[in-house]
């Protein structure tokens, strides 16, 4: 990669400072801190506070009653989604690791959410999603296997009501998505996802520079 000039170094440093400030701007409660600690213990990377706050805002903006989450983890993103959803909303969250979902259950309980506010389904996303109702969801959040991104996009479009939102976490891939060097298959798949969403006539999309990149798109009516 080319060497940065002085002004470019300043801009890059300012952006990094601004991103750090955006994350620090978000206040997290004890349940979120607990869920983050569990994620670190099992070697998972949770969504950043800025990404979580964006998800919370999007859930609130859509007045979400039904949300599907691909990748429960230890409950960090789920907590943010629940914080933004309607009081009678239900989060359906899918993960191949049931023990991680148990951590999420505990985190949701600690945050004061009743058991009926979340439906935990263990299993691979592409095995579970076909069983969910067509057009039954206001928001679908995807934070699973990047190699399955395009398949998850197709399933998400089926699940979403008109005007619903689909969001993909981690599309920057730590800067590798825009790096011209040779990249692994998962990064190539992310590039395909970005292209498919941008070119889709069914979606209106934007890419939010929070965390490791949050791709968001509204399903047109």
From TrEMBL:
UniProt xrefs under InterPro entries: Cation-dep_OMT, SAM-dependent_MTases_sf, SAM_O-MeTrfase
Gene3D superfamilies: Vaccinia Virus protein VP39 (3.40.50.150)
Keywords: Methyltransferase, S-adenosyl-L-methionine, Transferase
Pfam families the UniProt entry points to: Methyltransf_3
One record GO biological process: methylation
GO molecular function: methyltransferase activity
PANTHER family documented for this protein: O-METHYLTRANSFERASE RV1220C-RELATED (PTHR10509:SF85), O-METHYLTRANSFERASE-RELATED (PTHR10509)
Protein name: Methyltransferase
């Amino acid at each position: 990669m080319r060497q940065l000039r002085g002004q470019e170094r300043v801009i890059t440093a300012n952006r990094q400072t601004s991103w750090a400030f955006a994350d620090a701007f978000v206040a997290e409660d004890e349940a979120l801190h607990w869920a983050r600690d569990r994620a670190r213990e099992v070697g998972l990377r949770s969504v950043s506070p800025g990404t979580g706050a964006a998800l919370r805002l999007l859930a609130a903006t859509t007045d979400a009653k039904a949300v599907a989450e691909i990748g429960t983890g230890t409950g960090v993103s789920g907590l943010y989604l629940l914080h933004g959803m309607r009081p009678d909303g239900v989060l359906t969250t899918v993960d191949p690791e049931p023990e991680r979902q148990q951590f999420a259950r505990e985190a949701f309980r600690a945050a004061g959410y009743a058991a009926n506010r979340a439906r935990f389904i263990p299993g691979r996303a592409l095995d579970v999603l076909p069983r969910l109702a067509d057009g039954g969801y206001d928001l679908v959040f995807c934070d699973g296997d990047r190699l399955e991104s395009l398949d998850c996009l197709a399933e998400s479009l089926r699940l979403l009501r008109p005007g619903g939102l689909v969001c993909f976490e981690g599309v920057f891939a730590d800067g590798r998505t825009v790096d011209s060097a040779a990249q692994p298959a998962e990064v190539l798949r992310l590039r395909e996802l970005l292209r498919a969403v941008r070119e889709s006539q069914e979606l209106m999309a934007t890419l939010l520079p929070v965390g490791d990149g949050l791709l968001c798109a509204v399903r047109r009516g």
